[in-house]
Amino acid sequence: MSAARPSLRKAPTNLAHCTATELVALYRSGQASPVEATDAVLVRIAERDPELNAFCVVDAERARASARESEARWQKKAPLDLLDGVPVSIKDLILTRGWPTLRGSRTIDPKQAWDVDAPVTARLREAGAVLLGKTNTPEFGIKGTTDNTLTGITRNPWNPKMTPGGSSGGAASAVASGMGPLAVGTDGAGSIRIPSSFCGIPGLKPSFGRVPAFPLSPMGTVAHLGPHARSVEDLALMLTVISRPDARDWTSLPYDPRDYRVGVRDGVHGLRVAFSPDLGYVRNVDPEVAAAVRAAAESFAALGAHVDELAPGFSNPEEITTKLWFVGSLSLVSALTPAKLALTDPALRWQADAGRKVSAIEVHALNARRGELGSFMRQFHQRYDLLLTPGVAVPAFEAKAPHEWELEVDQFLGWTPFSYPFNLTQQPAAVVPCGLTRAGLPVALQIVGPMHGDALVLRAARAYESTREWRYPFEGVALA
Length: 480
Hints:
Layout: H1 20-29, H2 34-52, E1 55-58, H3 60-75, E2 87-91, H4 119-126, E3 130-135, E4 147-148, E5 152-153, H5 169-176, E6 182-187, H6 193-199, E7 203-205, E8 224-229, H7 232-242, E9 272-275, H8 287-302, E10 306-309, H9 318-333, H10 338-341, H11 346-355, H12 360-383, E11 386-390, H13 409-413, H14 421-424, E12 429-436, E13 442-448, H15 454-465
Parallel strand pairs: 2-3, 2-6, 9-10, 9-11
Antiparallel strand pairs: 1-3, 4-5, 6-8, 7-12, 11-13, 12-13
């Protein structure tokens, strides 16, 4: 049974505008080739990246070689796997064989052996994906904007004066501007969902451990890996590939061999949905964001869901997130020499200084409070299948260099209060665009599901996506 309308999207004429699903269909029918698609994306990178600075590494030669190998497989009707020939980018926190992983930091020596693929990179290679390069990140992924002292400021394709968010801002900016249909991001306090919201694309933070990681994040068990895409079906396609197992991650979930595309169009009829515009404690949601998200939530009732407006009932866990995060930042700088420390982002040093004030007994207490929150939300989802909130409380704001930001706790996460609670609880959450402000900046709806309910979250995101037309900056004026 499907409650979702057919897609309103028209077939693109430029291969750089295609989704991954569309590209694979074109390869299968012989109407396009991986070489043609890769060339189109590389042309778009040459056109747009000098302004947006989404990439810190672009390897056109290797990408074209990979595309030629894929083309030969498609000509023999023997593709490797689901993503054979699809251009993909990798966030520069993730190990990628043959390319340096500098994590936006001048403290890492690029002249070393780069001969290991992280699990997600390995799965993409095994699936035949064409790896384009690496996308920009703030230093060590420590904040919700994308700027660093090594490779500079990444900008938002809807308005290059604005930030794309972070820390996966390079990934989201690339996808939204046509510089590849898929990108890998990471999310420790919103770092997939914030830039996906600001850049107007779907993004998914899967359940913790669903996508294996290696090495594990210094920020601990709040850090998730997941996909950015231009359609929810592409999120499902990519998750199917990157969630395959890897023994190096001892925290990963038991392998689930499902294809996440199966059932993604089954709609939300009969689901129990809670809508919370403020989680009961958020006081500063931009009015245009609030209006767009409310309209999106109301559409779930039209799709057949039972929607109640209510707050889940937990208090703001910002202190838990910030203090545990700052301890992680302290761990990042603890081995640096004074000379190397001086090379880092001022925000990293500020966070580490705050982390020094957190005692071991306080860390223990914070983790206990985190456990209580996780238990609370497990019980909440016995009553409600999904929770809907804004993706971010504000639209994208001005992009700045590292030294230009205010270093205050309320400036760290206060503008994204809907993201970090669900890193603490480890449950899956997706964002999907739901409108534009009068200034032409995207607004997103967040869909939170129960732990291990990744397929349900994707299904709900697809149901909402099917109700509206959405255009990207490269397609002309977007429709609100």
